[in-house]
Design brief:
There is one protein chain. By secondary structure, this protein is of the alpha/beta class. The protein has 17 helices and 14 strands. It has a seven-stranded mixed beta sheet with strand order 2-8-7-6-5-3-4, with helices on both faces. Strands 10-14-13 form a three-stranded antiparallel beta sheet, with helices on one face.
């Protein structure tokens, strides 16, 4: 690669400094190194101490062999190539398509015309209505399709909301620590303030309103205009699923301090312990219980096809719903999403399939249920196996798997390991994760990439990869690492 020269208009010192300041650990140095190893192995070279790379650093299910849901992909195939519908007999008798697949494809085509054409900027109206119907079934309260905005995955929705919220460098957003680094990186690019509040690891990474208030009051005393609070439920990287009392407490806090709630709910189907309770349901319930008190609590909740049992990250489909927002603000949000024209229409169609899957009694239901349950049970089994492995490892502590796709264990490393890390200019958790990658081919993310309390060390790993051999390699590596630096 050619270096920077005076002949180039752009160099590393004159590009947007806020982009340079942003950090995104899940695709950082470890991920880059893991891809180098993957390419090396693909060239047939065999001198590494492992034969495959396990990308446990990112929630990318289908890269790790999670199979697509048949109904979803069959419908998408017809949307991409509608001429196939002229061969109905072949589809039904020879290719395993069911009548409801063809019916759904025809219905979606009648609503979007072509997946190669732009839709309305906030998404095809019929798809927004299908989402509204899903939300009403899920929560037991009405939803209005006019308040729903389809996006290119939840990340695009977060980007839209933060652009609207952050007016200047004094604008602050309360963000949970540890958190998915999309939030800190986006706020860095916007030159806005990330106001950290720490989750309570001793309570399965629960929220503590006292901690939130302390963070809020400290920020406001420093002149920061705190405007919103982010909640990730179920949690990333922690996997925690919030109980009703925590959700109620957050909504009450938001009411008291006039904060917008951003509820990142993309893991809502990945719950192993307890149940998923949406912020929309709880807010509407509180409005019903105390009429008038919560009518101006603004909520934006997000969902995506990338996670859950769908795992269609590459199709970039998602949505957010606005509750209690000022109509004039919503008009500006519509204008903002219009600048990008619309989200991918094939992704929009996939969102419709996610929120409106085959129902009992329909031809595709039996296979859909089998595939869905198989993915869910497989995730839970692998999470349990990985958790049991951590229990065997010296100095590693990890709560029971609760949900999402991740475990976030605490690791206690010997002082010599910390010294060796410092000699390399790394934090101790970065040092550990890099050594793990070089020894086993397993790529995880150091806890410092998500934020953690001073003096504590963690790493985040997905449990998406098939099989258990890689889990055994982590156990072996950890013992050897501890023995080396004891």
């Amino acid at each position: 690669m050619m270096g920077s020269t005076a002949a180039r208009r752009l160099n590393i010192n004159n590009i947007n400094p806020h982009v340079k300041a942003a950090k995104y650990a899940v695709r950082g140095e470890l991920a880059v190194k893991s891809e180098e190893y993957r390419a090396y192995l693909q060239r047939g070279l065999t001198d590494l101490p492992f034969s495959q790379v396990i990308s446990a650093n990112i929630g990318n299910p289908q890269q790790l062999d999670q199979k697509p849901i048949t109904f979803f992909r069959q419908v998408l195939s017809l949307l991409e190539n509608p001429a196939l519908l002229n061969y109905e007999d072949v589809l039904l008798s020879q290719l395993g398509y069911k009548p409801d697949v063809l019916e759904r494809a025809r219905w979606l085509l009648s609503k979007v015309g072509s997946v190669g054409a732009y839709s309305a900027s906030n998404g095809a109206p019929a798809i927004r209505q299908s989402i509204a119907d899903f939300l009403e079934r899920r929560d037991g309260f009405p939803a209005n399709q006019a308040d729903i905005y389809l996006s290119a995955g939840a990340s695009s929705g977060v980007n839209t909301l933060l652009h609207i919220l952050c007016a200047n460098e004094k604008s602050g957003i309360l963000v949970p620590i540890p958190q998915y680094p999309l939030y800190t990186a986006s706020l860095s690019v916007l030159n806005a303030k990330c106001v950290e509040y720490h989750l309570d690891e001793s309570r399965n990474w629960g929220t503590d309103v006292k901690v939130m208030k302390e963070a809020y009051e400290k920020a406001t005393s420093e002149g920061i205009d705190v405007r919103a609070i982010v909640i990730i439920n179920p949690g990333n990287p922690t996997g925690a699923s919030l109980p009703e009392e925590d959700i109620r407490a957050v909504i009450e806090f938001a009411r008291e301090e006039r904060l917008v709630i951003i509820a990142d709910e993309v893991y809502q189907t990945n719950v192993f312990i307890g149940e998923f309770i949406s912020f929309k349901r709880m807010l509407r319930q509180m409005q019903k219980e105390t009429p008038g008190a919560y009518d101006y609590v603004e909520l934006a909740s997000l969902h995506s096809v990338s996670k859950g049992m769908v795992g269609e990250c590459g199709h970039r489909g998602g949505y957010f719903e606005l509750v209690n927002f000022d109509p004039e603000v919503q008009a500006e949000i519509y204008k903002f999403v219009s600048i990008m024209l619309c989200s991918p229409v094939i992704g929009q169609c996939l969102v419709e399939l996610m929120v409106n899957p085959p129902k009992p009694g329909e031809p595709s239901y039996a296979l859909y249920k089998q595939e869905y349950d198989g993915i869910f049970n497989g995730l839970r089994e692998r999470a349990t196996a990985l958790h049991k492995a951590f229990e065997q490892m010296e100095g590693v502590e990890c709560g029971s798997p609760q949900g999402s796709m991740y475990l976030f264990p605490t690791i206690t490393l010997p002082p010599k390991a910390t010294e060796a890390a410092a000699a390399e200019g790394r934090t101790a958790d970065e040092f550990y994760c890099m050594r793990l990658l070089k020894a086993t081919g397993v790529c995880v993310v150091p806890g410092s990439g998500f934020g953690q309390k001073d003096g504590s060390l963690h790493f985040r790993t997905t449990f998406l990869a098939p099989g258990t051999e890689w889990v055994g390699s982590i156990i072996k590596f950890h013992k050897e690492f501890m023995d080396t630096y004891r």
